């Protein structure tokens, strides 16, 4: 019987590649989307669940029977539109559900290379890039939210499943499948990598 991967953010730039790659590798895939009409992939191993990350019953249904759970969720880049503590609230909702779902072995959370994680302070260069990007691109609230989510996960570790926080740097379009490795809180290469490359690394994590 094939293992199952549950994916949140499966219609985004990285998530859509992850769904395609996981299906290529023979996994069963369960994704949560706000609108099923956004999913164009047709595959007998793909289950689409409608809802959002604030909907406990939909989240619980998405991870049911999954061995691996992955979040590629991202919010609006416009600061005024970014929901306060969106990702922190999501992981706080998800955590007890993961703990209760006996099949789950690993949770992978995509953060970002400009977000700090406990025990790994940012370099001075990264701090400078972060300051400029936050002002120019409006991603300050998203960075801060990812950091709060990472801190909360570290402070609330569970024995029932492992978790990995990925910290990708610059992402770009392309078909490259450059091999990168996902390890807990280890920054992925700060040189540009493709969305597909990151998706493959995450599924293989």
Present the secondary structure layout.
Elements: E1 4-8, H1 13-24, E2 28-33, E3 46-50, H2 56-63, E4 68-71, H3 86-100, E5 106-110, H4 124-137, H5 140-155, E6 162-166, E7 171-172, E8 193-194, H6 195-204
Parallel strand pairs: 1-2, 1-4, 2-3, 4-5, 5-6, 7-8
DSSP strand tally: 8
In terms of per-residue confidence, which ranges show pLDDT below 50 for 5 or more consecutive residues?
Answer: 182-189
Q: Please identify the structural class as seen in this structure.
A: alpha/beta
How helical, in percent, are the residues? Answer: 25-40%
Mean model confidence by pLDDT:
84
Instruction: Specify the number of helices.
Output: 6
How do the strands line up in the largest sheet? 3-2-1-4-5-6
The fraction of residues assigned to DSSP E strands is 15-25%
Overall, the morphology is: globular
- Please compute the radius of gyration using only Cα atoms: 16 Å
């Amino acid at each position: 019987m094939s293992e199952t991967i549950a994916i949140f953010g499966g219609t985004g730039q990285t998530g859509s590649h992850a769904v395609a790659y996981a299906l290529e590798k023979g996994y069963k895939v369960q994704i949560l989307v706000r609108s099923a009409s956004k999913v164009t992939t047709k595959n007998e191993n793909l289950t689409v669940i409608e809802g959002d990350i604030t909907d406990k019953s939909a989240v619980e249904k998405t991870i049911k029977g999954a061995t691996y759970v992955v979040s590629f969720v991202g919010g609006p880049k416009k600061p005024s539109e970014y929901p306060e503590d969106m990702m922190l609230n999501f992981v706080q909702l998800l955590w007890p559900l993961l703990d209760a779902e006996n099949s789950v072995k690993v949770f992978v959370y995509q953060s970002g290379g400009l977000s700090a994680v406990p025990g790994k302070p940012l370099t001075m260069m990264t701090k400078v890039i972060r300051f400029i990007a936050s002002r120019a691109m409006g991603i300050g609230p998203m960075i801060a939210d990812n950091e709060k989510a990472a801190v909360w996960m570290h402070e609330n570790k569970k024995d029932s499943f492992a978790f990995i926080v990925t910290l990708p740097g610059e992402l770009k379009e392309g078909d490259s499948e450059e091999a990168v490795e996902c390890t807990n809180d280890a920054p992925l290469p700060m040189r540009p990598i493709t969305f597909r490359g990151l998706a493959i690394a995450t599924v293989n994590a």
